[in-house]
Amino acid sequence: MATVKIKIDGQAIEVEEGSYVLGAAQSLGVEIPTLCYYPFMSPYAACRICVVEARNNKGWSKIVTACNYPAWDGLEIFTETPRVVNARRTNLEMLMANCAPVPLLEHYAAKFGVKEPRWGHGTYTCILCGLCVRICDEVVGAHALTFVNRGQDRDVSTPFDLDSEACILCGACAKYCPTGHIKMQDIEERVINHRELNLGPNAAITLPFRQAVPNVPYIVRENCIHYKTGGCMICEKVCPKDCIDYGDRAEFEEIEVGAVVLATGFDDFDPTPMKQYGYGRYPNVVSSIEFEKMNNAAGPTGGKICLENGEEPRRIAIIHCIGSRDENHHKYCSRVCCMYALKFSHLIMEKTKADVYQFYIDMRSFGKGYEEFYQRILDEGGNVIRGKGAEVAPASQSQEAEGAMIVRCEDTMIGKYREVPVDMIVLCTALEARADAKDMARRFNISTGADGWFIESHPKLAPVSTSTEGIFLAGVCQGAKDIPDSVAQGSAAAAQVMRLLCQGEVLMDATYAEVQDELCSGCKICNDMCPYHAIDFDPEKKISHINSALCKACGTCVAACPSGAIKGRHFTDEQIYAQIEGILS
Amino acid sequence: MSKPKLAIYWASSCGGCDISILDIEEKILAVVDFFDLVFWPCAMDIKYDDVRAMEDKSITLTLFNGAIRTSENYELAELLRQKSVVLVAFGSCAGEGCIPALANFFNKDSILDYVYHKSPSLANGGGVEPQPEVQVPEGTITIPKFWNTVRSLDQVVEVDYYIPGCPPQSDQIVNAVMAVIDILQNNKPLPPKGTVLGATDKSCCDECPRERNIKKIKAFTRPFAKVTDPNLCLMEQGIVCLGPATRSGCGAKCVKAGMPCRGCYGLPSNINDQGAKMVSALASVIDSTDPEEIEQIINTIPDPLGTFYRFSMAGSLLRRVQV
Amino acid sequence: MSFEPRIVGFLCNWCSYTGADLAGTARMHYPPNVTSIRVMCSGRVDPAFILDAFRRGADGVLICGCHPGDCHYIEGNYKCMRRMPLTQLLLQQLGIDRNRMRLEWVSASEGGRFQEVITEFTEQIRALGPLKLHDYNFDPNAEEVHQHV
Fold it and tell me: How far apart are CA A356 and CA A425, in angstroms?
C-alpha cells in the first residue's frame, strides 16, 4: 500500500494513504480530544470534538474531523490553532445546547474553558454520538439499536420502540454511552437475590476462583458476547500482550506421563428434591456453599450476611446432614459439614446480632483442635439442638414476630418436639461423587464404589493408590474428607508418584495371567473380558496376547478361556483344583 | 519275523469309526502290508474264543472304538487290554462316551421302559422285555447285561493313547497309524502314555476360517433358525458353537459347511470339562449386566446339558445325570 | 450322627474374603461347614471348579463376590453374575438341586452379612441332605452293573 508524508503540528510522519489523521497524531503523541471515537469502532465524526485544521502548501486550509479525515501526500495538520480551539468550543456548546449538564460535557467544558454555553443547556441526555448504535452493530453484532427519525426528532431506539428480540442484554450500549442516557435498569434497582448466589462466574472473563493455580483469567463461553453473536472480541483488540486469540481452538495434546494423580473432587448435593426443606421455594433457604459465597468479602453481597430483602437476619438455622447419613440419599457421613457449620455460627455471631441454631444428628468434631472449636462456639453462645431438622414450614402468626419460617425437629436431648422460628436457613448439603466419576474411572481403569467414590487399593495399607498401577487418588474423589485430610492425601499421592518416578525400573506383581501361545487358537472370547485392556489380538500369529504390565490378575479371562490356554499365575487351575481336593479329601 | 498284530474292535458304537478306517482308501493296503490283522469283527469272521486263545500282549496295537455300555463291551475291553501291547481309545465313544453316553441323562430302568413299552414306534404287544438269561429246551441262552451307566474306555481299563473324533477323520487316522508303523519299524520310543494322536492341543477355532471379532451376545439361536453370514464366527451370530472348547484336528469341517462345532473331537488337553468351559466362555460374552436380562438370554440356549455335553457326558467331571 | 454338610466357598480377595476376615476378627459365630478358597475375583470362578467340588463330595458350593458396581476389578463380578445362572441351569439338568450352589455379594465391611450367608446356606444344604453321586465310580463287582432289567 502506498504511503504518504504528512506533518502534524510540524512533526513529519509517513502513514498509509487514506489512513485517518487521528491515528497518525496518536502515534506521534499529539493529543486530540475525542468523544465519540473508540479504536474498535468505525469513526463516525458525530461529536466533532476532534476537529483539526488541515492545510496544503498552496495556502488552502479547512477544519476537518481528525477521526475520519484521510491522509494525503503533503497534508499538514494543526491541532491547536485558534481556529481549531474556537471550532471545538462552538461544537461543544452546540452539544450542550441539546443536552442536560452531564459529567462528560462538564469535563470538556472545563477543558475548553466554556463557562456559560451560549445557547444554554438542553434537557435531554442523548447527544446522538452513535456509540451505542455502532457497538451494537459493529462489535456485539446484535443489531438491536439504530437511529430513528430525522432532524430535531432524531433519536436512538430499538425498531418501532419495542422491546427488541435481537437484544442479547449484554449491556455494551449502556457501558459505552458517554452521557448515561442508556441504563441497565434492573442492575440499578434490584436487591440481592439469594438465587443469584450461584457458584458460577458472573463475568465473561473471570478467574476460576480467587486462589486458582495458575491464576489466569479465562473466557466463560456462556457469558461471552462473541459466542452469542460472533461479534465483540474487544478483549482481543485491547489486550496489550496479545494474549487473547479467538482463533484458537481446543486441541488434543498427548503427554507421556509415568503416573497420574486423580484429584477430581466432588459435586455438591442438590437439596431441591428434599422438598421438606423448602430449598428453591423459600427465598431465605440457602445451601451451605451459597452461604459461603455470601460470606466472601469479594462475593455478591460483599461479605454481608443478609436476607433476600437486604435486611440482617435475626435468627438463622443451620441444618446438618442434608443428603448425608440419609437412607434415601447418601448413607455416608460427608465429614466436613459439622465443622464448617460451626464456623458459620462463629461468622454469623461475629458479623451480625443474629441467634444461630445448629440442628445436628451427631456433632462430629473429630479432628485436631475441632472439639475445642466446638466448645468455643458453645461458649460464644451458639445454640445447638441435637435432632435433625425434619421440616421447614412457614411460621404461624404467633411465631412471625421471631421469624418467617420454622424448623421442626425433635430435640433428642430434652425428648421434645420443637418448632424454632428463624429468618434464614442454611442447609449443610452432602458431598457427592462427581456425576462423571464412572466415566473417569473407566478411562483410568480404576473402580468406583456404590457411592461413586473412587476405590483405593486397600483401605488401610494403600489408601492413595488404586488397582491400576501408577494411578493415585487425592482428596474427596476418593471419599468425603476435609481440607487437612485432602492435603495429607495429596502429599501422600505426590510422594507415591515420586517413589515411582525415581525408581526408573518398576517391579510388577508376579500375579498375572498369560496366554500359552501353543494352546491359544484365537477364538477372541477373552478379548472383551479385560477391564484393563491388557488383552489384545496378535493378527500375525492369530492368537491373543496379554500385556502383563497391564494385567491386574483378576483371573476373569482365565475362567473364560474355553480351551484352557490362559494361565493365571499363582491362581492356576491346578492350584485351585488341589485346594478343592484338599478340602474335600 | 512275524508281522506285528493289529486288532480293531467296536463296542457300543455306530460303526462310523470302522467306516472311517476304510475311508483311508489305498493306505489300508500299507496297513495290512505292515500289520497282521488278527481281529476286526466288523470286517472279518472271528470268534471271541480265538482272541482268548491268543497269548497275553501278543497283539501289538488295538484300536478300540465304542463306549462301554454292556457287560460284553466290558468283557472285550478287559480281554483286549490283556492281549494288547498298545490299546488305543479310538473315536469319541471310547474316549468320552459320545452319543451313546447321552443315555447317561437317564437310568437303565427308564431307558428299557421307554424302549420296550413307551416308544411311539413300538410294536411289542406282549410287553416283552429282554432277559439276560432265558431257559429254552436246548439250554440257557444269555445276552449281555445292560448297564446303568455308559462308561468311557479309560474308566474301565487302562488306555495308552487316544484318537478323538466322531468319527476320527481319515487323514488323521492315516497320520496316527503311519506314525505307529514308523515307531515300530524304526524302534523309536513310544509317545508318553495318554497322548492324543491325530489331533492338536489347540481348539477347533485354530482351523476355522471364519472371521472373529469381539463377541457380545444378546440372544442365542439354533442354526436352522437363522441365515448366517458364511464368513463370520458363528458364535458372534448367536449360535452355540463348541469350537472354542473342542480339540482341533478335524479340519473344522462342520463350521466350513455352515454348521456349528458340536464338540466331537473332545476337550483340549488343558481343560477338564468341555461343558463347564463352554458355560464359562459363553456366559462371559453375554452382553448384559442385568440379572433378569441375563436369565432371559440364558434361556435362549436350547438344552444346555445336551448341547454342551453332546459328546463328552461319560468323560465329563460328573459323568452322568443324577436320576 | 447328624449330617454335617461339606461346603466349598470361593471368596473374592477384596470383598468377601475380607468380609470373612472381619467376621472372624469380630468373633462372630457361624457354622464351620464352609471351607473357603481365596480367589482374586469372583470372575475367576470357573464353572468347572463347581462341578469338580461336587464330584469330590461337596454338598454345596458358595461363591461370594463384591456387590455389583463395587468390584475391585471394575466388572469381574458381572462376569460371575452371568456364568452362575447358566451353571445353575446345568446343575439342575445334571440332577443336582440348583440350590446347592449359591452366588452372594458380600462386601469387605459386611462381616455380619457373611455370618448370615454362611449360617443360612449351611442350613439350606443341611435341609437338602447329603449329595450322593449315583453310580459315579466304576466297580465291575457292583450289584448295579450286574443286575439286569
Answer: 10
- Is B204 within 8 Å of A522 when comparing Cβ atoms? no
Q: Copy the grid coordinates of residue C109.
A: 465391611
Residues 465-484 of A with CB under 8 A from C: 467
Co-location of A439 and A550 in the same domain = no
Segment B180-193 shows an average pLDDT of 90
Q: Which of A151, A166, A189 is the last residue of a domain?
A: A189
Mean pLDDT of A449-478: 90
Give the position of cell 478323538. B164
Provide the domain limits for residue A518: 513-584
Question: Strand, helix or coil at A155?
Answer: strand
DSSP string over chain C: ------EEEEEETTTHHHHHHHHHHTT----TTEEEEEES-GGG--HHHHHHHHHTT-SEEEEEEPPTT--TTSSHHHHHHHHHHHHHHHHHHTTS-GGGEEEEE--TT-HHHHHHHHHHHHHHHHHH-----TT-S--TT-HHHH---
Cβ contacts of B211 within 8 Å, gap of 6 or more: B231, B232, B233
Chain A residue with the nearest C-alpha to that of B206:
A521
Count of domains in chain C? 1
Which of A529, A558, A580 lies at the smallest CB-CB distance from C37?
A580
Chain B residues in contact with A519 by the CB 8 A cut-off are: 201-202, 268, 270
Asked if the Cβ–Cβ distance from A563 to B203 is below 8 Å, we say yes
Residue A196 lies in a domain: no
**Preceding omega of B291 cis (within 30 degrees of 0):** no
pLDDT of residue C120: 97
CATH 3.40.50.1950 fits B5-99+149-185, yes or no: no
For residue A536, the chain B residue with the least C-alpha distance is B214
The subunits that touch chain A, with at least 3 C-beta pairs less than 8 Å apart, are: B, C
Q: How many domains, chain A?
A: 4
* B112, B156, B316 member nearest C138 (Cβ): B156
pLDDT digits (tens, 9 = 90+) for A228-276: 888 888 888 888 888 898 888 889 999 988 899 999 999 999 999 999 9
| Dist. CA A162–CA A160, nearest whole Å | 5
Same domain, A529 and A440: no
CB contact under 8 A, A562 and B280: yes
Contact B151 C149 (CB under 8 A): no
Give a yes or no: residue C64 inside a domain. yes
Residues A142 and A101 in one domain: no
What are the residue ranges of CATH 3.40.50.700 in chain B? 5-99+149-185
Mutate to test the interface with A, among C40, C45, C55 (most CBs of A within 10 A): C40
Full domain range(s) for residue C123 = 7-146
Choose the final residue of a domain: A483, A506, A529.
Answer: A506
Task: Tell me if A100 is assigned to some domain.
Answer: yes
Q: Which of B216, B63, C13 is nearest to A553 (CA)?
A: C13
Chains A, C: CB pairs < 8 Å: 93
Please list every residue in chain C whose beta carbon sits closer than 8 Å to the beta carbon of residue B271: 48
The residue type at B128 = V
Q: Is residue C99 part of a domain?
A: yes
The answer to whether residue C2 sits within a structural domain is no
Using CA atoms, how far apart are residues A386 and A404, in angstroms rounded to an integer? Answer: 22
Query: What CATH number should be reported for the domain holding residue A16?
Result: 3.10.20.740
**Under an 8 A CB cutoff, do B318 and C144 touch?**
no
Residues A60 and A30 reside in one and the same domain: yes
The pTM of the full predicted model, rounded to 2 decimals, is 0.67
The ipTM (two decimal places) reads 0.96
- Mutation site, C17, C46, C74, interface A, largest A CB count within 10 A: C74
- Using the Cβ of A1 and the Cβ atoms of chain C, whether some distance falls under 8 Å is answered with no
Domain membership of residue A184 (yes or no) is yes
Q: Which residues in chain C touch residue A448, judged by CB atoms under 8 angstroms apart?
A: 69
